[in-house]
Amino acid sequence: MKTFDIQATDKSLQAVIQDKIDNLNKPKGSLGRLEELAMHICLIQQTLEPSLQHPYHLLLGGDHGIEREGVSVSPREVTWQQMINFTHGGGGVNMFCRQHGFKLRIVDVGVDYDLSDEPGIIHRKIARGTKNFLYGPAMTEEEFNKAIEVGADLVDECISEGCNVLCIGEMGIGNTSPSSIWMSLFGDIPLKDCIGAGAGLDNDGIRHKYEVLTKALEAYKTYKANENCILPLQYFGGFEMIAAIGAMLRAAEHHLIILVDGFIMTACALAAIRLYPASQDYMIFTHCGDESGHKMMLDIIDAKPLLNLGLRLGEGTGALCAYPIVDSAVRMINEMNNFKDARITKYF
């Protein structure tokens, strides 16, 4: 696997950042999470005057072999249909990107459909979907490494255009299944507590999903026992998910702000953190969704999301909705006057 040079944020500025925040003309601590967020961003950028420049949203698409087992209420053709819809500007992700000034890049990493003639889609297809991990690894080692590279290269392109804040979303029917398994493995949580409705399964559907994923997990453990040193990322993941991990790691390496949203992207963030613990320093967890287990997964990494709107759309929409809060934190530390300059008696 490609390696990354990810360093924890330098905390030596923390005291002087806190002093600046405390001397803004307000009661100490009165802006709550905005003050914590401003500290976080200042440490990422190593400055007392942070900025948000050229925000990018990567929308990564891929299909999953496990979908063939009926673990999702939505058929796989929805993946490519939605990818085309995004190019026409008609998705939730399009609306929020327009609202908040994000440049959207729609990327085919592994959709099971020929999208090569569709304008507006970046073509990085590794294969037409992953293999069914009920019967073996979802992807080869070569495919896994290529997906990591795709994610890293996409971030390099964003950085070359001045981006310093990155949001990542996904489009892939069936991708709550690998996310649930990663949550179980990386968080040491019983699988049944990690499985939810996805796009809308009923109780019978959730029960079936649990049975399928239990068999797949047992097969993986047998596979590993036979001295196959394969990462659970490679065995269960989707191409869009592995690319997202590569993007997160490259973004952390270059000290970008990474906005994390949703069950699937939180699972990818959890995987990235298990690979490179320091990468968490660059992540802002923006939203706790409606998918069962999402809060539990956030608790594993002691992450406090900014919003809880009950969203379960995916696409990174929760992160985009939270962006104005991030912007407010930056404006607070840059634009509020302090007690001295405002000639106000410090009243705490």
Give structural notes.
The chain has helices at residues 14-22, 32-45, 77-87, 92-100, 141-160, 176-187, 203-225, 232-236, 239-253, 262-275, 294-300, 317-335, 339-342; strands spanning 56-62, 103-110, 121-123, 165-171, 257-261, 283-287. It is α/β, with parallel strands linked by helices and 348 residues long. Strands 3-2-1-4-5-6 form a 6-stranded parallel beta sheet, sandwiched between helices. Strand 5 (257-261), helix 10 and strand 6 (283-287) form a beta-alpha-beta unit. It is globular. The model has no long low-confidence stretch (mean pLDDT 94).
Lay out the secondary structure.
Layout: H1 14-22, H2 32-45, E1 56-62, H3 77-87, H4 92-100, E2 103-110, E3 121-123, H5 141-160, E4 165-171, H6 176-187, H7 203-225, H8 232-236, H9 239-253, E5 257-261, H10 262-275, E6 283-287, H11 294-300, H12 317-335, H13 339-342
Parallel strand pairs: 1-2, 1-4, 2-3, 4-5, 5-6
> What's the total count of β strands?
6
Question: What's the total helix number?
Answer: 13
Biggest sheet character: 6 strands, parallel
Instruction: Tell me the strand order in the biggest sheet.
Output: 3-2-1-4-5-6
Quote the average pLDDT. Answer: 94
Cα(first) to Cα(last) distance is 53 Å
Whole-number radius of gyration? 21 Å
Compact overview of the structure:
This protein has 348 residues and is of the alpha/beta class. It has 13 helices and 6 strands.
Features:
6-stranded parallel sheet; 13 helices; alpha/beta; 6 strands; single chain; 348 residues
